[in-house]
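Colleagues,

Please find the record for the two-part complex below.
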Amino acid sequence: MQIANCDFEALRMLRALRRAKGFALYFAVCNVPVYRAELMEEIRRNLRRPIVEVAIPSDADDPYPPIEEALNGRTNSHPVPEDAIVFIYGLEHLIPSADLERARRTLSHLNRKRSAYRRLGRPLVFWIPLYLIPFLAGEAPDFWDWHSGLYEFPLPEPVRGEVLTRLTEGDYRTASALPVEEKMEQIRLLESLLDEYRGDDIPSLRARKETLRRLGEFYYSLGEYDAALKSFRELLSVTEKLGDRAGLAESYNNIGLIYKAQGDYELALEYHRKALAIRKEIGDRMGLAESYNNIGAIYYAQGNYEWALEYYEKALAIREENGDRMGLSTTYNNVGEVYRAQGDYGQALEYYRKALAIQEEIGDRAGLATTYNNIGEVYRTQGDYERALEYHRKALVIREEVGDRAGLAVTYNNIGLVYRAQGDYEQALRYYEKALKLFEILGMRLEMAVTYHNMGLVALAQGDRERTSEWFRQSRDLYRELRLEHEVVEEEKMMERVSGS
Amino acid sequence: MEIARTVDEAYHACHPEIPLEADDFRYVDLTEARGGFDLAEVFSRRIRRTPSPTFHKQLVTGHRGCGKSTELKQLKASLEKLGFFVVYIDVEDVLDLGEIEYLDVLVSIAKGVYEKANDCGLDVHRKLVEELDKWFAEKVLTEEQRQDVERALRAECGVGAKVPLLRMLAVITGQIKSGSSRRVEIRRRLERELSVFIQRLNALLEDVQVRLAKRGKKGLVVIADGLEKMHYRELPDGQSTHSKLFVEHAEQLKAPHCHIVYTVPISLVFNVNLGDAFPNTDVLPMVKVAEPNEARTPYEPGRKALFEIISRRINIEAIFENERPVWKLVEVCGGSVRDLLRLVRFACDEADEVITEEHVERAVRRMAREYDYLVHEDEIPYLKEIAQKRRVPGDEASARLLQKRLVLEYLNDERWADVHPILRKTPRGREILGG
């Protein structure tokens, strides 16, 4: 292998590492582990000094103990050679960009233990992605300040292009269906990849567009709405710079989705309308169908079923015409939801089955979970609790597997509903609480309000007045924050019933 | 240590992380270079002139890597020459800078002083020591901790066994440093008995001083170095860990009956209440490489001193193509000795046998890029303002810029500041500094 474009940097690093005696601190910047492994081999071949590698476990807070253990531990079968250089990996797992609390714990350990690192008496090379530099310099400044060298290894082409393709291929469905750990790993790589394309030239902007889109999608699927919003806002500015109208519409659309998830329907509608206008203008049929579908979903959430169906019909017409199977299954599901909300269960089940057929055929796991959930809800409303639980459990298995926390919370809530209907109040509360915890983590206030309401109903049935009024009050407060006046009044009526009885 | 004559040796002669001992021949007097501030002289004069029985309490801060530790070691040496008994505590080694409290500092002073007194054969009043030891055992330690100490004492037959108090203090600081739940317990107990603790600490300090006087010594000075590295955190009540220690607990930090020099975080100099608590707070300025005028006229004494820092370590003729690249390094380091030494290492990375101007140019560009990574987009207006006015407004954002050393503080008759000159080597920096 060749260290393309980085020959000089590798040479500098080799000079420093050959000269290093005793303690010295180095940082080597490489954003992608695969490439790092290649670099390492190249350096090992040329260094003529032994190298000890230490991978810091990702569940550690303090990187020092594992490093110390690797160098001086009694369990080592071979003592570490006197003149060995120490290569340290994995710091980025301890300093995630999206979890400042966690990052600060590790940075604080690094900063105050710098003397301990010096006492190790060896050259230490920390391999890090670029985004860690401001973190280290800002939050572990005394540690950072001791470094004797910083070596940067930007990805050479074609490696960079290959990584970009690999990380951004596929669509939202395939990405959102990945397990949580895989998503976190890819998020880290995508964040690092942004640093590989820093310029404002067209190819860099295009690469950033792909990267930001996927990043936002991952965050969205994990319910990390603030991080998702940040990515999509950056996506917006990149597509503006590119003059990419379709991309701009997509950015508006995605921001609209986040606002909807956060319960801000008016703002969501505003963004979807912006997307819609652009898509009409440029004649983007697929995009248009998406916008119709998403606007329909907001009307549905607001209880405006007539308009919801109208928009879904528009979406269906385009999707049937284009043969967009994935899109069709989504909208079928949504139409089913409207019928279910209106009490027309026969129609609802028919639409769910249409969706199911497509999803099974194309292997759409995340979509399947949604449909299972919806079918479960129909059976629950019809009083067929066994089958309701069966379908909710099917949904649960998939959602756990793909790390869809928002979906999981919904399923917990729905399982709670089934238990309540069966009169098993203890189980019902247990599931509601699980749901509530997740909704709270995800910042989904509307869903929290609904779950509190459900808990209030259970407490009411149990005759526990204190908890009843507490939970209805919580629900009312959330509705009030969301400015859903109708619901606020409903919750207050519930509270009055308790205090009046 | 020999003066380096090869690039390999030059690399070893320049460590960004090792402060110089007082008698190191590489030490260069930077008083004039810093705009006339002689830390060792000023502090030792203040200490000398403090009339008994009062004690001088001094705070000192400065940029990371400006030479604080090196100057404090000079202070220690010059005070010792004058007949003072100086206890130098590197807090980083003794305490946990992530979670430090004033009580920990007081215990570390007790430990530092008693340890050194003991090493020097000062026979501190036996009864006093025994009482203090007993007091710690009864009032501060839990039953479990007491047993640990006794077990350790029995196992040991060396010095520790003869000096139980040392053992005790080592155990207490060890537990404070380790960050266990025992730390919380120890602090809670100490706090409950605070006035007694301070009384006993002072009895110990006074006894040491009586014995020092008998030996003809002038007095006791504690230098607590490293406190400026304590962790910064906003606390729920709105203040920071920094102001909690040095402002809220100033009285306790001033309580010990001896002269004390504490190092403090640089961001604290903007805290309006610090001056009331500690009237003697000084900032060790950077070595000045330019004047604060429009043209940034070179300040020759500063540049010569920095040049000398290199020439004491490296035979410039043998390693550099000529002197010009060395002056280049001096100019762009902004007076930060640590950056200067790091730059030499960077230049060594480029060369096998001789360091040329081209090598130095590359080293400078590499370091400039590092600093560029630290500039946040929002900070550019602040940097522009500072570059223009040569003053640091006393706000949070500026404190951060000082912390990151993107802005450096200097001294003429008064303090002034400028953006780190290495930023000029980046496009953004040229925009900030205007050309």
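Chain B has a mean pLDDT of 88.

Comments are welcome before we finalize the supplementary table.
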